[in-house]
Design brief:
Blueprint: H1 3-15, E1 33-37, H2 54-62, E2 67-71, H3 81-98, E3 103-105, H4 109-117, E4 121-127, H5 139-145, E5 148-152, H6 175-186, E6 190-192, H7 198-207, E7 213-217, H8 231-239, E8 243-246, H9 260-274, E9 279-281, H10 293-310, H11 333-343, H12 348-367
């Protein structure tokens, strides 16, 4: 190569357009909150005590998730509700102490912001049943002092506060339920009506002095199943200043095998009913995916039989349904949802609200800054 050719190549290199940069992570600067999820590895047997593995932590960090509402305490089964719930709080406290570089216990909205700044995962303690209150609403004080920040009033069945989503009678909030809601308000604990029947949800939204939430649900207008909420419930929760999280669950599609397009459809319906300041996500799952779906089928069948035996299986659950959305799982699930919403024309500011901003706003209203 002579000098003239070398100079020509150098000039061409200087004037050529720069190589296209790798696409930026669309959620890198966002606060992403899963209003109901978990730090779990479904490929492993459920540990006897709360614990996280290096893979669970790696996947949670890789997902871009800032904070997650983890279900602790009694949900269903033969255990004594109060004892199990207190024990679970202790175990989660120990788990967080053992992983200080990765986890932080969330008590206020500021802790979610701090988790983002410190590149940690904020762990929110939440109950999916209030059966542990027994017959004493003052137990709310105990759990609030222990750091429980969300209490779902019922699971699928009836308890002393009212009826869950699969109870045909649909009893509303009981006298005891009203006392518990009042106590939750006094302790600035979120009142969650996921899994509830329609009437108890409406009663609680009207009775609560603070906004309430439905942290993981779908829209009944799109898929008529008991685990999904009616427009009446969604609208009232939003009008009262609350929060609605859409889940990544089979109840979004009557086939029992929901897809990412179903998640987007339910989010868009909730936006139309509630407005963009009240809708988020509560996936009801973790960020570590199933490695072998064929192998997992046996585990699913066993889990379904156990739920049927306990009487807590809801319409829409079958032995062959997946308790997640097949094409919206793993560490990339939040980025993929961002891109799907963007393709539908939702602007970045709205998507940021959906992925976490609306939950943080709601948390400030309930827990304080």
């Amino acid at each position: 190569m002579n000098r003239r050719d070398l100079l020509a190549l150098s000039a061409a290199a200087l004037t050529a357009p720069a190589a296209a940069a790798a696409p930026a992570d669309p959620i890198a600067r966002m606060i992403v909150v899963n209003a109901l999820g978990g730090l779990i590895d479904p490929n492993l047997e459920e540990p006897k005590r709360a614990a996280v593995t290096p893979r669970i932590l790696k996947d949670a960090h890789a997902s871009g998730m800032t904070a997650v509402n983890c279900t602790i305490g009694y949900v269903a089964g033969p255990q004594e509700p109060f004892q199990q719930s207190v024990a679970d709080v202790g175990q989660y406290d120990a788990m967080i102490r053992a992983n200080p570089k990765d986890l932080i216990k969330v008590l206020t909205a500021a802790d979610i912001v701090r988790a983002k700044a410190e590149k940690k995962i904020g762990v929110i303690y939440g109950f999916q049943n209030a059966a542990m209150m027994g017959d004493d609403p003052a137990r709310v004080d105990i759990f609030a002092d222990l750091g429980v920040r969300i209490v779902q009033l019922t699971y699928n069945l009836r308890n002393q506060l009212g009826d869950g989503s699969i109870v045909p009678e649909g009893r509303g909030l009981t006298d005891f339920g009203y006392k518990v809601v009042e106590r939750l308000n006094g302790n600035r604990v979120m009142v969650d009506l996921s899994h509830s029947g329609r009437q108890i949800c409406l009663d609680a939204a009207r009775a609560s002095k603070q906004p309430i939430s439905i942290n993981h649900t779908g829209c009944r207008a799109l898929t008529d199943l008991p685990r999904n909420k009616t427009d009446e419930e969604l609208r009232l929760v939003a009008e009262k200043g609350g929060f609605v999280g859409i889940y990544f669950m089979p109840f979004l599609n009557l086939s029992g095998h929901a897809r990412a397009v179903d998640v987007v459809a339910h989010i868009e319906h909730a936006l139309n009913v509630c407005g963009e300041d009240h809708v988020g996500i509560g996936t009801d799952g973790g960020t570590t995916p199933i490695d072998d779906l064929e192998l997992y089928k046996d585990a699913l069948r066993k889990e379904h039989e156990d739920r049927k035996a306990k009487g807590i299986a809801a319409p829409g659950e079958r032995a062959d349904t997946h308790p997640f959305v097949d094409d919206l799982r793993g560490p990339d699930q939040f980025r993929k949802l961002y891109r799907l919403l963007a393709e539908r024309g939702h602007r970045p500011a709205r998507i940021e609200k959906i992925l976490g901003g609306n939950f943080v706003r709601y948390a400030r209203d309930i827990w304080g800054a």
